[in-house]
Amino acid sequence: MNxxxxxxxxxxLLIVVGVGIFALTRNNERENHAxxxxxxxxxxENNNLQSSNHEQNNNGNExxxxxxxxxxxxxxxxxxxxxxxxxxxIAEITNSDITEIIPKEEYTTEDLNYNNDDSRANMxxxxxxxxxxxxxTINVEDYDVIYxxxxxxxxxxxxxxxxxxxxxxLSGKTVIPFCTSGGSGISxxxxxxxxxxxxxxxxxxxxxxxxTSNSNISSWINGLDINE
Length: 228
Known about the structure:
By secondary structure, this protein is an alpha/beta fold. It has helices at residues 3-61, 82-94, 120-126, 159-167, 187-196, 214-222, and strands at 72-76, 97-100, 145-151, 174-180, 201-202, 206-208. It has 6 helices and 6 strands; from the N terminus they run αβαβαβαβαββα. Strands 1, 2, 3, 4, 5 and 6 form a 6-stranded parallel sheet that branches. The radius of gyration is 37 Å and the shape is elongated.
C-alpha cells in the first residue's frame, strides 16, 4: 500500500479519536455542571428553609411578650422581695410602668414574725382600722389598667393595700390583682378588695409562687380579657 495513503488513514483515525475524546470530555463537563448546579440549588433551598425555621423560632420566642395598647401600671407592695420579682416580670411582659408601694416604716424580720402575736404584721392584720402610712407618692391618674401586687397576709391583703385604696381614686379603672403566697389562694383577698371598693373594675387575679416562670405569667396575662 502506498505510504502516503497509510499516513492519511492514520491521520484520519487520529482525528476521529480526537473528536470522540473531545465530545466525551464535553459531555462529562455538562454532567458535572448539571450535578453542581443541582447541589447548589439544594444547598440554597436548605439555607432558605433553615432561615425560615429560624424566623419562625424567633417569632415563637417573642410570644412571651404581650402587646399592650393600654396605659398600664404594675403597682406592688413587697416586704421580702418575692412579690417584687413577679411584679418586674409582669411589667416586662406587658411593657408597663412599675411603682413600688413603699411603707413609711419598713418591715423588719421581727415585724413579719407570724408566730409572735405581738409582731407588727399580726397586730395590723387583726386591727380593722390599721392603715400603714406610705412613704412615696403614687401616680395612678395616667393609667387605664393597674396590676396590683401584694403578698398574702393572714389569708388576705396587707393593710397597706387598703391605705392605697383610701388615698388614691381607682374608680372606673381596671385593676388586676396578683399575689404571692406559699400556699394560700387569692380568693379571700379578691372578695375583700371587691367589697372594699365596688367602683373599681376588678378582674380575677392570680396567685404566684416566687419561682413561677415567665412563660406561666405570660399565659395568665394572655388569658385576661382586659377590654371587657
